[in-house]
Specification:
The chain is built from two helices and six strands, in the order E-E-E-H-E-E-H-E. The protein has a single domain, classed as 2-Layer Sandwich (NE0471 N-terminal domain-like). It is mainly β.
Length: about 80
Amino acid sequence: MFLHVVEARYVQDYAVWLRFNDGTCGEIDLSDELEGPVFEPLRDKDLFKRFHIAFHTIAWENGADFAPEFLREHIRVTA
């Protein structure tokens, strides 16, 4: 099964709540991942909040995205 983000909600700061197509749900704090030319602009929280689901993951208007496998591996699972 290919892993897909099917729902995403902004939580606070650089945290996002995610639900995957395998039923897994949880939060991920991406604050430590916002380095490099594509991700550093996301330190602007107004830009960070404007993510959307594209190509089975979360993405931003500047072209930044994270692999769904990376997100799934690093979330704090919630019920």
